[in-house]
Amino acid sequence: MHISREIAPQIFWVGGNDRRLALFENMFPLPNGVCYNSYLIIDDKVTLMDTVDSAITRQFIENLLHLLNGRAVDYLVINHMEPDHCAYIEDLIRHFPGIKLVGNAKTFNMIRQFYDFDIETRLHEVKEGDTLCIGRHTLRFIFAPMVHWPEVMVSYEQSTGILFAADAFGTFGALSGGLYADEYDFEGHFLDEARRYYTNIVGRYGAQVQLLFKKLSGTDIKMICPLHGPVWRKDIGYFIEKYDRWSRYEPEKKGVVIAYASMYGNTANAADAVAGRLAEKGVQDMRVYDISKTHPSYIISDAFKYSHLVLAAPTYNAGLYFGMESLLREMAVLNLRGRKTAIIGNGSWAPAAHTEMEKLLGGMKQMELIAPPFVIKSTLKPSQTDELYALADAVAASVLDQAVL
Ligand SMILES: Cc1cc2nc3c(=O)[nH]c(=O)nc-3n(C[C@H](O)[C@H](O)[C@H](O)COP(=O)(O)O)c2cc1C
Ligand SMILES: [Fe+2]
Ligand SMILES: [Fe+2]
After folding, report:
1. Residue 82 CA: which ligand is closest?
2. Are 104 and 110 in contact (CB under 8 A)?
3. Which residue CA neighbors atom 29 of ligand 1 most closely?
4. Separation of 92 CA from ligand 3 center, angstroms?
5. What are the structural domains of the chain?
6. Whether residue 405 has pLDDT greater than 80
7. Which of 192, 306, 310 is nearest to 254 (CA)?
8. Cα of 280 from ligand 1 centre, angstroms
9. Which of 74, 191, 321, 382 could anchor a disulfide with 261, C-beta 3.0 to 4.6 Å?
């Protein structure tokens, strides 16, 4: 049965949910599934805004055929050429041989790279700011390069004020009935997954997200239709503010992420000792993670959320424990910056973890070490208590300082 929904007169959501997929991009856990959105505008020219992942094409075509009621699709607007939104293009052409593909020069190169079917006679190329009138509705195209991929653009429908936003403003998590963000307790239901989606998938491209915001300033956006997750029709400013903050790499909250690695439990013990001391000093918002257990996407998401980051890891083969090295490299690639940090290293004969962590943090922008690196030789000794507490107290004082944030 179709599950399509009308979002404005003659504009419909025709997406679907995948609650089976374990890993998005074969990398990111999806405990709550994921939703792929596509939108259909039925006008003089029937226009489809993006398609969906191959996993849900059966649902998608059912939605589509129900609404088309025998008509054909005239235009497919391709805001983003990533396969989770384009898997169905070839079949769509088979269904609707007269369909025109609307995209930019980069979109079409991507199609040629991914697929072998003949597209040359079907292209409708648009440039930045171009419009496409499809009847009562007119789409304006705004390029958003690297707001995930280089070919990305967003489409603004001028009569309704709907922004078809590609991956921008998307979230992980399948829909639980509601199509609109305001049908959920968004903070409880979606916000953490929205942050994990943004920071891990688009996090590197904060500057490009900021550029898109600049291009859109002055545009009266009444509804945001992303390619993943719920549609925004109320309190749009709330979510724009979140995206603005994340893309400026500014923390949302004062608080501490303590991420540790440990083989025998000694570094874990130090992490717990620091966490306990921070709590005693009045720090309330804290997350302690064993990096070998928790998927890095969750730790990265919280590192974007909070103001402070404490890293603790053992030395491994004259270097840094691999999991911690990889976590820090991921943070660097995602351009995380401007956090206040502290480091705890461990080693039994030639501790090197702390210097490696310091180096990796040093390669990231505006990372401030607020206490000297603390070194454990195998296990924490009572004689080190004062020094460890001094590190914790420096972190606590910085978190509790009203001037931060
Ligand atoms: C495979 C392996 C390689 C290690 N390499 C080093 C090393 O190069 N230098 C060093 O000082 N300690 C090295 N260690 C020792 C650990 O870093 C050390 O025992 C540390 O205290 C472990 O902390 P944990 O109890 O939190 O696991 C190594 C341990 C293992 C298992
Ligand atoms: Fe994407
Ligand atoms: Fe996507």
Report:
1. 2
2. no
3. 316
4. 19
5. 5-247 (3.60.15.10), 254-397 (3.40.50.360)
6. no
7. 306
8. 30
9. 321
